[in-house]
Structure formats: structure tokens, C-alpha cells
Amino acid sequence: MNICVYCGSSSGNDPSVNEAAEKFGKLMAEQGHQLVYGGSSLGVMGTLANSVMKHGGKVTGVIPHGLFRKEVAHQGITKLITVQDMHERKSTMANLSDAFVALPGGFGTLEELFEIITWNQIGIINKPVTIFNHNGFYDKLIAMIDHAFETGFIRPENRSILNVAQSIEEILECCKK
Questions:
Q1: Would you call 112 exposed, middle or buried from its count of C-beta atoms within 10 A (0-12, 13-18, 19+)?
Q2: What pLDDT is recorded for position 65?
Q3: For labelling alongside 19, which of 13, 52, 141, 167 has CA 20 to 30 A away?
């Protein structure tokens, strides 16, 4: 399975996030899953990609020309695809992937997560989407999504698009749904 992972290009303040990314990368590689991600060598993104590679897995990075230097494109992965812009990046990543996972990250991670949920909602794709709620990172986001559901802005069938995993192992189970 090709799993697209959205996550931070920074490391954040909690070292356990990078430790979780390292463990997830190892598990992906051991189970024969390939990583598709944003192509950076920095932060959680770099940690995850390095772990998959270190444990014998395959990694495809997709990075726009404009971010090639800023995000320090990862030169040590299986394949690095350079695209024109963020729209092409997201489209390419979606086409290459069978499932989507969001690890902790910032605005970019959230934007990509919500776009892929919306693509499922409107029928562009039909692929599993999972957030890894590491140490409660996404608790408030989940509460906001549930509030939008409870107030009638998200239909039941659309609320079910988003899976929530509380453990590394559970992420891969959710990717199979």
C-alpha cells in the first residue's frame, strides 16, 4: 500500500512526535508499505522518510520547485518528484496514494488534511483518511469537527470519512478501511 503522510516540516516542541514518526516509518517499511510525502529532509517529514529508508522501505517525495531549497529537498530517498506548484504536488501525491495519514503538523498539514477529506466528500477520490492523535495533539480539532457534525454542518456519511488512530499500529488498521 502507498501511504501519503502529511506532517510537519519542523520538529515542533515535543520530541515524542519525532520518536513516533521514527516508529511509524519502521512499521511501514517492515510491513511493506511505501511512503508518499512532501519531499522535505527537515522536521517530522525528514524523520519519517529517513526511518522508512533506514528500515528498507521505499519513499517517494513530491516537492514544488519553489520549496526545493526552502524545505531542503531530501536527496536520500527512493524517488523525488519535482512539480510546478502546490496544486500539482497535492494532486500527484493523491494519485500515487492508497490512503492518507496526518501526523502532527502545522497549517500545511491541516490544509492538506482538509483538502483530502473534501476530495473524498465530493467524490474525487474514495480513499481512507486517518489522523494520528499522538498524545492528544488533535483533540481540539476532533472536538471542532464533532461540533460541526452536531450542529448539522457535516453529514454523518461525511463525518465517517475521517478515522482517528490513537496508536501507531492503529494507523495502519485505519488505512485499510
A1: buried
A2: 83
A3: 141
Burial class (CB in 10 A: 0-12, 13-18, 19+), 32: exposed
* Residues 35, 5 contacting (CB under 8 angstroms): yes
3-state secondary structure of 66: helix
Neighbours of 133 (CB within 10 A): 18
CB–CB of 73/37 below 8 Å? no
101/151 Cα distance (integer angstroms): 26
At CA 140, angle to CA 169 and CA 100, rounded to 5?
A: 40
Q: What digits encode the pLDDT tens for the residues 43-101?
A: 999 999 999 999 999 999 999 887 656 558 888 899 999 999 999 999 999 999 999 99
4-33 average pLDDT score: 96
Q: How far apart are CA 35 and CA 122, in angstroms?
A: 25
25-44 confidence digits (pLDDT tens): 999 999 999 999 999 999 99
Domains in the chain, start-ordered, CATH in brackets?
2-175 (3.40.50.450)
- How many Å apart are CA 113 and CA 135, to the nearest integer? 19
